[in-house]
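The aim of this short unit is practical: by the end, you should be able to scan a pair of folded records and say something sensible about each. We start with the first protein, listed as its amino acid sequence and then its structure tokens.
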Amino acid sequence: MHSSRARSVGGAGCLLLLALAILGSLVLGQIPISLATLAESFTSFDPARVEHLVVRSERLTRTVVAMAIGASLAVAGVLIQSLTRNPLASPGILGINAGALFFVVLGFSLFSLLAPSQLIWLALAGAALAAVTVYGLGHEPGQGLSPIRTVLAGVAITALFVSFSQGLLILDQSRFESMLFWLAGSVSGRSLDAVLPLLPWMAGGVLVSLALARQLNLLGLDDDMIQGLGLNVARVRMICGALIILLAGAAVAIGGLIGFVGLMVPHIARGLFGTDHRWLLPAAALLGAILVLAADILARLIIPPREVPVGVVTALLGTPLFLHLARRSREMS
């Protein structure tokens, strides 16, 4: 069992890691920034200095974006695993991210929409369509959601929507080249002014999720027992579904297809903090932000001076974990 003292120490450790990750994101890259220069870029900004411009116009934005995406995808992963009672579930695995991506590509290709504040509505619509489709395909009459059928449906929907997205962009080579890096998942090249309108949505989704922590603890029980405790199961599940769509859709609208964050982080958080959602959700938000920040730092340093898409780094980290979980689930079944 995880004691409150151990959880408090773990929470403090996560905050320390987050602070270090933020610092690393601001100073590491093709142009190294000293701590003194970093401080000066905020206290006495000089637009004539390249280092100050790099910090204020590029790295600060991508740090904020990475934290927002990581926290949103991680919390969405906790919600979807609690909702489906499936350890393999995540917005990426179940096709929600891919659905949001396809609708974003539609808006970009057909209407030349570029601002995240414009793409968010399309992303939410695509995420909702994918979620409903996967739910329908994974549901067994009289038995509820089948974990295996749900995962298979999610994989199929993901492949379908990603193929549609690529097909649309291939028809226009210039657009394909401009969005290729974004399709693989990236936190670079975003304007802070364009991203700021979406941050309240993501923060609101995380806060509402935290407010549902006690109800989420009850979702692991049998439905009859839950109803006996007076919990409106249908309402809680509907709210959770809306939060998953909001958080995943907003993350895709900003950063593209960054996978496996919603799968990895909930399992790491449970191993460190237990299954109580009052601790699990904030821990997942912190760890998700740390993971995407760390992946972005690695993406800059692997093959300098070029960058690797963040989604590639998270896929390299997440694929072995997914295979391990799939094997363990098969052995337990």
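Turning to the second protein, read its sequence before its tokens, just as you did above.
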Amino acid sequence: MPAFQWVVLKDRTYSTNVKKVSAVTVANREFANLSNSVQLMIKPGAKYMYASGGTDSLNYLKIEDTKILGDTLLGYKNFEAKDMLVNRYTFNYLHAYTQDKYLAKSADSTVNVLSEDKEAFTLKEIGGIQDYGYEVTDAVAERIAGLKQLRRQAYQIYLESASGDKYLWANDNTENKYAV
């Protein structure tokens, strides 16, 4: 999952001696705004590093698998257009006490999980595929071999109906309930 991947790059790389003591910028791969520059230190003979001012230790596990680094759709399902024409999807209600509840439309068009009914929803692409997360510039790609920009596609969920498609939307007038 990209949310558990962090890009760690030394801030100063213009000489070997500077590289040894340079602060590093740590940025989350999925959430670009989660980024910070920190000075890492290690005590003589220690196995783990720590950040200045911090009390916890750090250990990095470098991802070298180019299959992971180069997966632009990492963490997201990308549906093929032909699959969306024929496939229908039910959405399970994730809950600690039950696994047999699914999203369904009630008589007033709100979406709930109160009955044992299931609705078969359809997906439709919204716009084109978009870049997101940490920006992989040419300079970054030179420093981390195989790292590619993350991309994702947004989809709209709807129910097919003889009277027209009914799209899932948040109804602000009814305490933020979802309706179709």
